[in-house]
Amino acid sequence: MKRENNFKSAAKTALEMLKEGGFEAFLIGGSVRDYLMGLPIGDIDVTTNATPYEVEDVFKDYNVIETGIKHGTVTVLLEGEPVEITTYRSEGEYSDNRHPDSVEFSRSLRDDVIRRDFTVNGVAYSFENGFCDLVGGIEDINNGIIRCIGDAETRFREDALRIMRALRFSSVLGFTIEENTKIAIRKCKELLKNISAERIREETVKLICGKNAYEVLEEFSDVLGVILPEIKPLIGFEQINRHHIYDVYTHTLKAMTKSRPSKTIRLALLFHDIGKPACVSFDEKGEMHFYSHPKKSAEITANIMTRLRFDNDTKNKVVTLVEFHDSPITVQGSNSPDRRRIKRIMSQIGEELIYDLIEIKRCDNSAQNPDYYRGDEFYGKTLEMIDEIIGGKECFSVKDLKINGNDLLRMGYKGKEIGEALRICLDGVIDGRIKNDYEEILKFIEKK
Ligand code: ATP
Ligand code: MG
Q1: Backbone phi, psi, residue 193, to 5°
Q2: What is the rounded average pLDDT of the residues 215-226?
Q3: Pocket test for ligand 1, best of 121, 149, 159 (most atoms within 8 A of CB)
Q4: Is the CB of 380 under 6 A from ligand 1?
Q5: In the chain, pLDDT over 70 holds for what percent of residues?
Q6: Which of 7, 26, 102, 288 is the most buried (most CB within 10 A)?
Q7: For residue 117, which phi and psi values (nearest 5 degrees)?
Q8: Ligand 2 centroid vs 32 CA: distance in angstroms?
């Protein structure tokens, strides 16, 4: 069969060199799976009967990094590609649901395959002998099934992260999870509490960016609730308000999966309404309102992202997007984007985040009652307006003002007053009450 994709030439070189050294070696894991699925091929993982020191010897003329030499992994830089080479190994008992108590190197491919997580990740390939499938992985790839290698419950008890990995692969590959694997996920989900924040974070981000994130998170909301207990109040929380037809959790998933798979946008959409249940109130007609929920959601988001040890840059962006997701970009009653409102938001969140914010608003709006959807054209016009504001170098931030802090200092302003005065000037310019002109701004301040 002719395929669209092919293994990278570095993969071939790695296997050839190991063979010349007298060893057995196969590609395994994601690259073989992706090859069989006709997808672009990512990282190259090689498994071999050579010990790490033997591998280092074979590649002694190359750049070799001892990535995890105790566990048998070294990374070799071949033709500009990092190739991860791991010695066949079998694993001892797991007493902490995380790490094997011991790792033993082995000379048998079978030992190495059966310690891997899912059948779809257990197919080995060599250029000479083709596929070596000891676990029925090819059939599961063809049928789109995620199935544990061996007894599912045992495998999840060994390493509970595999639960998140099952959900992640199901989401990213669009595969269904086999029935016994599902039952074991439900039995073992609480063990996820033993897994490190970093590992949970990495799998969660991949999961929410997958093409089947909606289906997976709808079905496994209980698993998500173990790692993100803050989500639990959203599940089944009906919104008695004419703008909404879904409970908060369903709305959240629908909004999230309408966006492009960007990490920051998807995280912001996952968390945008997480503060709603805590902010609910009723009006005299019995309709629900959620005043100040963006602020509450931002607060909860910051806590979650700190706990999951996200880097500060990602955390700050997501928290800001959550905080501003509901800030109006029209004047009340109008259905056209309002330049002043948009510039005011830009003055607070900056030019880098404004496009993401508009995408979040579009997804949020389109996952509510369709009668109130503003329409794609509205969002298109909004983006054009932002292009004009940025392209035309219109003033939307304090640093764009024709007056600066030093000018005010000379006029006798001190400390905090300077920031406040600049802010007032900026509002005046954005609102069109004054021109962005040195003399005019001076007069304006003197009057104030
Ligand atoms: P991708 O790199 O596309 O995300 P992958 O399948 O290569 O997918 P990795 O996390 O890179 O996934 O792991 C490489 C291989 O190592 C997997 O295919 C699997 O065979 C094995 N593996 C990884 N993590 C585990 C685990 N927690 N338990 C058992 N086997 C694992
Ligand atoms: Mg990989």
Answers
A1: -65, -20
A2: 98
A3: 121
A4: no
A5: 99
A6: 26
A7: -75, -60
A8: 10
Give the pLDDT score at 101.
77
Taking a 5 Å cut-off on Cβ, the residues next to ion ligand 2 are 30, 43
Q: Which one-letter DSSP state was computed for residue 243?
A: T
Q: Is the pLDDT of residue 20 over 80?
A: yes
Q: Residue 327: its pLDDT value, please?
A: 97
Query: For 75-81, what is the mean pLDDT?
Result: 95
Tell me the CA–centroid distance for residue 43 and ligand 2, in Å: 5
In 257-388 the beta strands, taken as DSSP E runs, fall at 281-282, 288-289
Structure tokens at 208: 């929410």
The pLDDT value recorded for residue 2 is: 54
pLDDT tens figures, 285-333: 999 999 999 999 999 999 999 999 999 999 999 999 999 999 999 999 8
Q: How far apart (Å, rounded) are the C-alpha atoms in residues 262 and 259?
A: 8
CA angle 161, 166, 169 (to 5 degrees): 120
pLDDT, tens digit, for every residue of 428-447?
Answer: 999 889 999 999 998 888 88
Residue scoring higher pLDDT (3 or 84): 84
The answer to whether 425 and 403 have CB atoms below 8 angstroms apart is yes
Ligand 1 contact via 168 beta carbon (within 6 Å) = no
For atom 1 of ligand 1, the residue with the nearest CA is 30
Q: Whose CA is nearest to atom 10 of ligand 1?
A: 30
Q: Which CATH architecture describes the domain 144-227? A: Orthogonal Bundle (1.10)
User: What's the pLDDT score for residue 197?
Assistant: 98
Element housing 84 (H / E): strand 81-87
Ligand 1 within 6 A of 29 CB? yes
State how far the Cα of 234 lies from the Cα of 254, in Å rounded to an integer. Answer: 13
Residue whose CA is at the smallest distance from ligand 1 atom 27: 162
Tell me the DSSP string of 121-159.
G--EEETTTEEE-SSSHHHHHHHTEE-BSS-HHHHHHH-
Domain positions in the chain are: 1-143, 144-227, 258-394, 398-447
**Ligand 2 midpoint to CA 411 (Å):** 61
Q: What is the pTM of this model?
A: 0.93
Find out whether the beta carbon of 30 lies less than 6 Å from any atom of ligand 1.
Answer: yes
28 CA distance to ligand 1 centroid (A)? 9
* CATH no. of 1-143: 3.30.460.10
